[in-house]
Design a protein that fits this description.
The chain is an alpha/beta fold. The protein has helices spanning 24-64, 86-93, 198-209, 215-224, 231-244, 246-257, 308-314, 345-357, 367-387, 392-418, 426-436, 438-441, 455-466; strands at 3-7, 10-14, 165-167, 181-183, 261-270, 282-290, 297-303, 320-323, 339-342. Among the domains are: 3-62; 194-244; 259-342, no CATH class; 345-452, no CATH class. The chain is extended and about 130 Å long. It comes from Desulfomarina profundi.
Length: 468
């Protein structure tokens, strides 16, 4: 027999009434425990629903919203101490903010550079029009000048190498080993016996790797110029030129490892016909930026793997600072005594931006707004330092005075906010990322050559990504 016990909103289906206690107070405890259990299940389900809604809003924001990560908060700056809670932001935003006076650039067309060559074209009136109605000759009193920017399209030419031969007339017809023909040696070329000059190779490789112009598009350009140069030939030339430049590559690597700071990053690349690998398998292009800050070295290294061993082999015996994102393949840097591992505030900010975009449209500003303002204040410190021309030691001291208090308050706020934030939510993931990466994120304070983020490496790899 099945008994149904009802208490409040809890329904108990009991197959054996003997399992129920006789004491009503004990029965009430069981029902209360079941209510708590059901409530926990409902809360867990609602939490999952909220997370799914949040992720769905983020997907919509990525597809249909603005791609820029520029923070558009109302208040320009938060105080360094006693940071407000989310409920206080609405009140704070109503306060009046004084905007300092600023100068504007004059609108209009910029003058053309003076160093460009100029060709003067005079547009004069006919000689018969230079006589006045009264019969007097007109006198030139001035002129009106306007400049137009012109360009000469690429010129394809053939360099004809001529090597004269010389022989002795007196020795002609005499069978003697001394009778010789002299000729100048063949000039050294990057690709021996090839038709490509150094200038043509530089043009093709620069268009491919700097301007993201694939070989098949260059093939069409050469066709318009009247030259039949197919993409397979250009690809072969690129590989041969790369082998010839290997000594230069070693010199660049040496210069890279001599600098005080290296920015590292990696991106995916798909190779269609790589021996022993499927065309759909991901490979990676690693980029390293470092050396002398006035003329930094950009070094690209292809590898089929994203393993941290790739970066470890490149940075072997390096001493200095290395700035990366939060990818775990760079964790080996934390164990090297002579390396200072720096994090990237741009990646930390991006996670808060995603959490902010996933908020409901009508939701009030909350924790994401506070976090983004903290990060914005850090960048304001850098902007002020750059405006004052601070470098090296001066920049470090300025950061210790102005950025360290912001970092200290931000960390306290993150630790406090993490106690009542769902770890699986976008905000929870952003807070967890910052706290896990905190030692790396604040390490830039002591490195005068570094910026708060790893954008130098990301900007360096962008041309490759565009032409990928």
């Amino acid at each position: 027999m099945i008994f149904i016990a009802v208490y409040g909103s809890v329904f108990l289906m009991i197959s054996d009434s003997s399992t129920l206690p006789d004491d009503p107070s004990e029965l009430k405890k069981i029902i209360v425990a079941l209510e708590l259990k059901n409530q926990k299940k409902q809360d867990a389900l609602q939490q999952q629903i909220d997370i799914l809604h949040e992720e769905l809003r983020l997907v919509y924001a990525k597809f249909f919203g603005p791609k820029s990560e520029v923070f558009r908060g109302k208040s320009p700056q938060l105080p360094l101490f006693d940071m407000p809670e989310p409920d206080d932001i609405e009140k704070e935003s109503e306060e009046h903010v004084e905007i300092p006076a600023h100068s504007r650039k004059k609108k209009g067309r910029r003058p053309l550079p003076e160093e460009l060559p100029r060709i003067e074209v005079v547009h004069d009136i006919a000689d018969e029009e230079k006589t006045c109605q009264c019969g007097s000759h007109l006198v030139r009193i001035g002129e009106e000048v306007c400049e137009k920017l012109d360009i000469i399209p690429a010129i394809i030419r053939v360099i004809k190498h001529i090597r004269p031969k010389y022989s002795c007339r007196s020795c002609e017809g005499i069978e003697d080993d001394g009778a010789t023909v002299k000729i100048a040696p063949v000039p050294r070329q990057i690709i021996p016996k090839g038709i490509a000059s150094g200038g043509l190779l530089a043009h093709i490789l620069c268009a491919k790797f700097e301007d993201a112009l694939p070989f098949y598009r260059q093939e069409k350009q050469f066709t318009r110029l009247g030259v039949d140069l197919n993409r397979a030939t250009m690809c072969s030339w690129a590989m041969k030129a790369a082998r010839q430049c290997s000594p230069l590559l070693e010199l660049l690597k040496k210069d890279l490892l001599s600098g005080p700071l290296i920015n590292a990053d990696e991106t995916t690349v798909q190779v269609l016909a790589e021996p022993g690998r499927s065309p759909t398998t991901k490979s990676y292009m690693w980029v390293y930026r470092g050396g002398v800050s006035s003329s930094p070295v950009l070094l690209y290294e292809y590898h089929p793997s994203r393993s941290g061993d790739v970066a470890a082999a490149m940075l072997k015996n390096y001493s200095g600072a290395v700035q990366t994102d939060g990818y775990k393949g760079y964790n080996f840097l934390d164990t090297q005594d002579e390396v200072v591992h720096l994090g990237c505030w741009a990646h930390a900010r991006r996670k808060f931006v995603e959490a902010d975009r996933a908020r409901p449209k009508k939701a009030k500003p909350g924790s994401t707004t506070i976090a983004l303002r903290f990060i914005r204040n850090l960048y304001k410190v850098e902007k002020d330092a750059n405006r004052n021309g601070l470098v090296k030691k001066e920049l470090v001291e300025y950061r210790k005075t102005h950025a360290v208090p912001i970092l200290r308050d931000f960390k306290k706020w993150l630790a406090k906010r993490s106690l009542n934030t769902t770890p699986q939510s976008l905000l929870g993931k952003a807070i967890s990322y910052c706290l896990r990466q905190w030692e790396r994120l604040e390490a830039y304070i002591e490195v005068g050559d570094a910026t708060p983020d790893n954008n130098l490496a990301e900007n360096a790899i962008r041309p490759f990504v565009v032409g990928r």
